[in-house]
Structure formats: C-alpha cells, structure tokens
Amino acid sequence: MNSNFYSFISVFCALFLSSECAAQEQPKPNYSLFNPVPKEQVREMETDRPDVTESPFTVDAGHFQYETDLIRMIREKSDSRETHTLLINQANLKIGITGSTAIQIGFQTYGRQKEKELSSANAEIQDGHGDLTFRIKQNLIGNDHGKFVMAILPYVKFPTSKYDDNSRFEAGLIVPMLYKLPGDWKLGFQVEADRLKDKDQDAMHTEFFQSLTVSHSLIKGIDGIAETYYTYDFKAHKFSNFINAAIQMEVAKDMKFDAGFNFGIQHSAEKHYFIGASYRL
Predict the structure, then answer these.
(1) Contact present, 189 and 212 (Cβ < 8 Å)
(2) Short-list 50, 45, 89, CA closest to 65
(3) Cis omega (within 30 of 0) on the bond before 50?
(4) Which of 36, 262, 25, 247 is nearest to 149 (CA)?
(5) CA–CA separation, 187 vs 179, rounded Å?
(6) CA torsion 166→167→168→173, rounded to 10°?
(7) Per-residue pLDDT tens digits for 74-111
(8) Which of 85, 83, 87 is CA-nearest to residue 116?
(9) Residue-wise DSSP of 87-155
(10) How many Cα neighbours within 13 Å face the side chain of 58?
C-alpha cells in the first residue's frame, strides 16, 4: 500500500510541477451561471462517465449537463449472502457556476435490491428511490489550455434510499487528473479518500481509491475506454481490485450514449453492467 501510494505521489508531483506554467492563462470574460458562455465558445463536451475515474473538466458557466445510468445491474456475493441490485436512471445533474466551478446533484430514480441468505436461501426484496448526493467540482489547472488537467471534487451522500436499509451518510474527497498524450490518447488517473459505511454492520470505515484509465477514438464518433483501479479498506486491511471497459458514442452534438462493465476481480467484489447517456444544454 505505502509503496504504491508514494510512487503515485511522486508521479503526480512531477506532472504538476511540469505543468505549473500552463496555469498562467489569459483573462477571460466573467461568465457565470446568469451570464452563460456563448454556445459557440463552449469547450468540447467532457463527461464523468462511463469510467469510474471522474473528468477534471467542469461544465461551462451557465450550462447544464445531464449524465445517467439508464440501467445498471450490480451483483455482489460474500460468504454469507448474495445481493442483486437494479438501478434505473442513476443520474448526475451538473451545473456550471463559473469558468472553473460546477455543482453536481446525484440521485437514483428507482432501485430494486434482492438479498439472499446463502445458508437458508431466504430472500428479501426492497425497491424505491435511492440516495441523494451533492458534489462541487473545482478545476485547478488546465480547464481551457494545457496538456495536464486537475480538479478537486468533495462530496456528501444523504441516505434517502428506500430500497437500501443500510444506506448511511457518506462523504469523501476526489482528486481527478488527466494528461493528454500524443495521437489523441488520454491518460486519466484519480486518488480519492472516502468515509463509508461497513458492508455488514452499522459502522464506518475509511477507504482509499486509486485509478488509471486510458481512452482513444476507435472510429469517428466512438471512443474506447479501459480502466483499472483498486480500493483499500483501512479498517479491514483489505484490497479490492477492478477492471472496467466501455465504449462511448457521440450520436449528436452534445449527446452521447455509452455501455460497459465494471468487474471486481476478487470473489466478493461488486460486478456492474450498465448502459448510459449524457446530454448538455
């Protein structure tokens, strides 16, 4: 854990220092939520999906972006129980406040969760709307120019779920980064610290997250994304490793669809399958 973490910090510092000069950008008009960036001047549409690594870019001031899992299926199996979850419209509404700041409101329109005890085969099914999440994304460097982009993204999740009785307040700090490589390749990476509820008891633990993602155009209008990441539970001293693959297709200006999977390597890790969409106004 320590060697991985310190190696990552060393790489991050080198990239940050080499890009520091790029932060000296020319002054821009004072666009805001109530003084939107003109349509013809907005940046290329960037999304926080379909990979787990967030985008360090913010939505242009005065514009809205809607991103959602149209449908997501999750399977998780432990030594004692098996859980199947269906989520419909797991959405993230993003609102550009300034040239470098955006707020995000996450919600789940409908969820259905089936839990089965392996020892007795007894099953319990619950459904209803899900949790509510508030996030603020602050771009620190590279929003408009330069090869290196970085942001900070604190969040808090409110336990409003009707389908998950174990939902609790959770919070964390996400630091997404991206480096633009030659040939239109993009290398994304992220570190994150979270305070999360334990899986099988009403207690909390601290978790560390680190990811690496690569994306490139497959053909015109279709991008391929490959990702790997791990989480480390400090309380249980447990690593969980994942791989993620997806495609994202631009079907119209400011509208994209995507599909993919997020596969936990360990036996007890979650396995996700999803179809999603993104739209910008």
Answers:
(1) yes
(2) 45
(3) yes
(4) 25
(5) 5
(6) 130
(7) 998 877 788 999 999 999 999 999 999 999 999 999 99
(8) 83
(9) EEEEEEEEEE-SSSEEEEEEEEEEEEEEEEETTT--EEEEEE---EEEEEEEEEE-SSSSSEEEEEEEE
(10) 31
